[in-house]
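Protocol step 6 of 9: fold each sequence in the batch and record its structure tokens directly after the sequence line. For illustration, a two-sequence batch is reproduced in full.

Sequence one:
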Amino acid sequence: MRDDRVEAKREAEALDEPAREARDLAERLGLEPYPVRYWVVDHDQMNELIAYGGFQRRYPHWRWGMNYERQRKKDRHGLGKAFEIVNNDDPAHAFLQESNAPADQKAVITHVEAHADFFANNEWFGLYADRGEDGPNAAARLERNADRIASIASRTDVDRDEVERLIDAVSALEDTIDQHSPVDAARSVEEPGVADDVSGDDDPLAAIEERIDDLDLSEEVRRDVFDDEWLEARGEGVEPEDPRPDVLAFLRDHGKRYDPESGKAVDREPWETTVIDAIREEAYYFAGQKQTKVMNEGWATYWESVMMGGEGFAGPDEFLTYADHMSRVLGSPGLNPYKLGFELWTHVELRAARRDVIDKLLRVEGVTAENFHSRIDLDRVAELLEPHPAIAAAGPATLDALADLAADGDPRVDAEAVDRALSARGGDPNADPDPDGEDGPDIERYPWKLLTREGLAERHYVLSRPEHRGALRNVSRESLAERARYLFDVDRYETVEAAIEDVDRAAGWDRMVDVRESHNDVTFIDAFLTDEFVREGNYFTYEYSRAADEYRVASVDADDVRKKLLLRFTNFGKPTVVVLDGNFRNRGELLLGHRYNGVALDEEAAKETLKRAFELWGRPVNLATIRVEYGDGAVRRAKRRGEEPEGTEVGVRFQYDGGEVTEHDLDDDVEARIAADEVDYDTKPDDWLA
């Protein structure tokens, strides 16, 4: 153990410089990350961190041990090595596995710096906590929850098994929060009671009793018809005017606990509400990561590639290891958020840069959308878009050329860094720069120190990369005409050279930064997964064919690809369930509604979740959904014709009252409330309904 700690300390010290320099480079590139604290851990510690969701302490529960065993087996059999874990916090904490090769550690550090930037600037992470002076403070919050729940579980008047049972129930519903509202928003929601027309009376039970008194019934009739149990059910019922997306908050505020001895719902103990609140709060913490998986991983992969490959952060002896690392990350099978995100971010950059160039060229005298391709020499444009030679090859060999640019006030050059480098060289143009960087920047190892963000943007300009040099040729006349509509007849250029001189080489990066602030995966895919992206990336959809009894390619149409991906990412890829009625059938029952969007529920999983909801409501719980049914005859006929059978959508209601889950027909009005005519995939599921 002692040797292990010494080795870990030695490894951490060796990473001090890469971590420091990666932060400097990230900030030069325009990123604004949270401070990051790096930790080096061994295999077992990394597996524990993965089990705990990236934190060192969590509340006591059996699932952490289950997670640990699963990850340990994956690690042992080479089925999934974790290079790092980083959490959304200020400061962020990043854990690096000590067995990583040096090139892997550098790749991880650059990746982490980009994650920390995304955490600090994407508004969906701000729903968990305000970004004030204290920041998210996630580690402290989760540790506080761990202490609270551990203290509850250790109390002599509390059954520890009951604590775990409650955690099981809440965890099963942790994705039924309102992911589009802040964590504390539900506290301010005013729920209308069952007696909305009784003004000035906040007690629905008292309002009902007052109505009964007005009927002037005999005591016998009153006792037989309106008994105490009936009154209790009416007083407990809550009917939200609109569907409530935060199911957990509704259950916390209005739910009870089923008492098997009395067979009735009883009020919860205060500690039970504490547990529900703690786990719901943590669900909000992880919601930001679930909502932005593609964006966040793609963002980190993009900037990692710029730093490691484009800026040589991986040394010559490390580059092959890094290339292998990146190929494994991007080559993972299935829906790979790293690959999809990386390609979408590059597409965002390319579109913005191309638009900027086209806008400039359309202002050249005599150039129109109709004659663009005949009047503009695109080969010449490609030459003009190449970075300045001294910028492209920034380093010791171009120090004098950079000094000349700096003397002219060129914003692409860090004049102070160039001056320090010249001083360290001692004025001898043939001398090597200071190899230790004690008197000046180590420009041999880190040539980017000589450039500003503007210089780095030109050095990595997307339209000067070999794979994108033909991007301007692919612009259609229709697209050019559309851009021309928004250009006023001012600021004309006499020559192509003058127009290109005005091109903003940071336009792509600036656009990426804007998108990074406001989007989540759903809006990101909806906005930027274009026809061009689908066509050039060879994306397609596949579906299970009932006729052929196998999976087949279903479509290469961009709209179909987009729809399929949006279904995958909306509500974390989980079914959207809302509260429709807290007093269903006037019996105090809970009615949940599955917002059907063409994708049916996993009914077995839904039934098990319904049982968990019962534990938090204490009375019968119902779930309304729609399934697609296929008749045997229709399937046989479709197979003979080589066609897909047409199913019939049928509304169904599942009910659980503590015994068995039963199935019932669904009322037409309820079915109409959960069926979506058309899904527009904005971020608010409320708007899906017709």
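Sequence two, same batch, same settings:
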Amino acid sequence: MSEQCRGGPIAVGSLPSPIAIAFVCYGVVLSEIAAAQPSDDVSSEVKPDVIVEGVRPTDAGPMPGLLLNQDQIPGNVQSLGKREIAESRALSVGELMNEKMQGVSINDYSGNPFQMDVNYRGFTASPQTGTPQGLSVFFDGIRVNEPFGDVVNWDLIPMNAIERLDVFPGSNPLFGLNTLGGALSVRTRSGFSSHGIEASGLTGSFSRQQGQLTVGANNGVLGGFAALNFFEEDGWRDHSPSQVRQFFGRADWRGRLGVITASALLADNDLIGNGLIPSELYDERRESVFTSPDETQNRLRQFALSGAYDVSEALNITAQVYRRSSDRDALHGDAYEGFDDFSFDHDAVADLTQPGRFLARNGAVQTRLVGGITSGSGVVDGTPIGLMTPTTLSQTTYGGAVQANWNLPSHKFMVGVSIDRNRAAYRMVQRLALIDASHRVYLDPSNVAPQYYAAANDVPGNDFRGTGTTRSAYFSETWSMLPSLHLTLAGRYNRTGVDSDLLVRAALDDLHELRTGSAIIDQLVNDQTRTKESFDYSSFNPQVGINWLPVPSINLYGNVSRGARVPSVVELGCAFDDTLVDIPFGNLTSRAPRSLVSPGCSLPTTLSGDPHLPQIRSDSAEAGARGTLGRRFQWNASVFRTDLQDDIYFVGVGDGKSYFDTVGKTRRQGFEVGVAGEVGMLELRLAYSYTQATFQSTFYTVSPHNSSADFNQNSQASTNLPELGAFNSLPSPTASANGGRGTYRMIRIDPGARLPGIPEHNYNGTLTLNLTPAWKIGLEATAHSSSYVRGNENNLHEPGGTDQETGLYFCSLGGGCATTGLEQTFVRRGRPFTNEGRTEGFIVFDLDTSYRIGERLVLFARISNLFDEDYFSAGRLGVNPFSPAVNGAIGPSGWNYNSSEWQNSTYVGPGAPRGIWFGFTYESR
């Protein structure tokens, strides 16, 4: 044993010296054990453990080198190979997982096949900023969760470059931060695993065109592989074209003692996903959109260099360095939610009798005139009803890792260190706009009333820059105590530092309140508040697992583990700050939490500098069994549970503002069963999962379109109404609830409420009939049960009643309440609730057939949504301004200028209708 292991100083990264000594010395002991054995014995004993007939060894973590077969992994790891992936015809990893893997469902909030939320066991990997992320995703060992929000851009992963996809369940510490519910590991093809040329083409419905090409070759020492993917379609909904261009290239050198690999991943994609749509508009016309455009341009440049060195037959060392740079430019056209607050032209002349000088922009708002009260249908001409928001986001991540792996007869031991550093820059501006008859939002200042400054000028929202660094050390040991009994012990230590520099517009004025000609307009628009923040987090996450084979055909397993997720940059930037600050109003001074008097968060367009949030901690457990039935069938069954502490959610805090805040505990638990095999000409695969995802703590969130919300304006905290003074209003009993923030327009979530977007029952299955050696037909079914929509987190929304508000009671500052009594603000009349707060369950069938001509050419046809099922995979509660009018004025776009006639609605994410495609694949080996 080395002198250092007998007491010399050793330090690995930022780990304490004793931990480093334990890791390194244990590895040295194993290495000396291996060296003491005759090489023939090592060879004869190692190979059966590494290569088992019918069982493919699996890399135990993001880095390769430690090889375990399935019977040595204490969890329900699901895997798909390149042949299964190619035959699925899936456009993205999300679509593939939804069709082929247990415990998976999708939410299509964006309306684009490359931008879906992927839910696995109740945890989500999503491209949408602001969605709570709980899955880590790796591409050849490189984490592809972006630093800004931990989002995953599925369009940046080319499907034809994948050698295999593994899904690891639970809080596996080897995959690092954000592995709360699971990890996805993608391994790419090489010139050694993929020889020759493969080409495929597809055409059909929605003007979809796709071409793919791969080329691979090697001479025994050098190998090269390249994959190209080009995709474009018009989309089945209005204004929904998309284009995807992906390239992956890889070069490998294999020597007698090692391997060196260099790779490049490039992408240049234009995606349009026009999002959710009010159910009323969907019923009128399936293809319509609520507003457009919603365009995202993703650009990626990723380069990596990795290597493996075989010190001996039992010991290898792997290392990797990488640089990943992505740019995201987005343009969002939305309805202007501030329209509901429109009243009249605040800059009108004092003589209100002059025609045209007192203009009601919203017919729901009564206007007080000299001598009486009148109300109108609202003025259409010159009223901005749209909002245009361009954003830019640049992100760069780079880092490296070194790992040593001992593959011994009775021990599989790994130890490694890694460092990852990222930086991000985000900027957004906003403009008031108009909406045309096709619901396209457009800029046209000449046709907007000139007093609206924001119609002709960009108004900055925020300018953000931030960096983050994570240093980690990890280990894993699988001890085969008996040939049929394996014990696993693993752990990872993480230390993360986050630094950010935030600039946000200081003024509180809404866009329609910024008036041309104002003496302080430059100050209102351009004055920004700067906040610099630094946070540090650390965690040690362990795992213990066991595998037992009572008979060769049955494997029983179980594990417990702990994970962590550090709050992302966007969550820290939008964290609620309850520090009280003074608010002057004339001669009065009130106090309110800082977040209530700063610009609110309206993702992805608004950020504000706010305080520390604790990291999320997960405790996970799983137990299960898997095995074979005869030689033709495989089965599995497992139960699981993961509890989160200090979970983070996008919540409401009052005054129409929302932030990220810690909401306490959440839980995901359930079970999975599956079977796959073949009988004669039939191949069968069935998978079912039950997932119960619930909140476990009480908290409040803004949800103004939920029938159970508090519609009493007096439920606001008095500090939220400084102009009235703390003693000049009549607060309701709940005005001091919710941590003193009030409950106006909020709902209360209690333990046991189900998380939105997560169906309890999920099923997928495939039945394949091999009619001849060349011709086969496959029928695939995917089914999900009902789920609650966003905005219905308390699960209490239901049809019936209205959103009639109770006006604010106040005492005029100029009068005496003892003699005049309290006054009450005017409120529009209530709007009825007619929709459910959930999406219904559904089942979708796909039909696929292929015919092989010779050894190289295959022709195929695919029909998706065979029976043209109407279904929704996502939803949220909202209000529809494109509604019929009785007293209101309807503009050219269909917009009702009387917001009291708007329809409370459930916005839905519709599934695509029936689609038919034809294509071919060609292989030259």
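Proceed to step 7 once all outputs are recorded. Observation for sequence two: The chain has one domain: 78-342+383-799+827-924.
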